[in-house]
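Listing S7. Sequence submitted for prediction.
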Amino acid sequence: MDDGSGDRLLGTLGDPEVRAEGSPLIVLIHGLTGCEDSDYMRESARFHLARGRSVLRLNLRGAGPGNWLADNYYFAGCFPDIQSVLERLDEPLTKHGIVLIGYSLGGNVLLNWLGQAGSHPSLLGAATVSAPIEPAQACERILQRRNALYHHFLIQRMKRDVLSSCELTLVERRTIEDTTTIFEFDDQWVAPRNGFENAADYYTRTAGAQFVSYIAVPTLMLHAANDPWIPIEPYLGLKKLNNPNVELVLAKSGGHLGFHERGHADTWHDRSIDRFVQSLTRGVA
């Protein structure tokens, strides 16, 4: 799919063996350093396919198998990518509606879209799982000593992905190679590359929490209190908004994109989203 700027986004569409009557298209949006092949993307795709729904596993620009199709790389506020994809979906795919599901950073991108531009004739609703709705706080948490191993893994993956996919100047390439923390990466490359003054400006302007009050479609937000990388406090602050379109569900445990539960083959977040999708499609022919 061409987003109109010359960059193209790649996604993989899966159709169920038997389509459930009136089933919507499920669009999955991955998180940071993820892609259509991330375990949680494949797991959720299998879950919804088994329930008779078509599933589009979307790669944001520069991610995964689509890394050679774009000159730029996705970031926390790249919500126009979602709009461009929805506008190019064929009517047979969307005639029974669309449900968008964003994981981790993809969830924050989705909230940006829902709160600023989120409209499509076929949109039924949306859901987020473990979204970093206040990026500055998430960055601070990841930089804590307890997360040193994960932080090292993440920054190396971020640098590898960008260096292998983007059209970069020599200065940009050297800047990326020299960064040692996520904050430096965001401050010295992501922010200036995408029109932000610095990391603080980038985090402030792309924070999904500020857009929740403007969401006009049914939206389910799932998060775990024990997520090691995404603080729970911003979610607690959302409770006072009282947006009737937004359902906030906070689990005591589940970690980050985990939510595995003894006695269940499927994750808690997939089962919760399934109930949400069913509530959206009751009576849809």
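Caption to Listing S7: primary sequence and predicted structure tokens for the chain studied. The first helix runs from residue 39 to 49. The domain at 11-137+207-281 is CATH 3.40.50.1820 (Rossmann fold).
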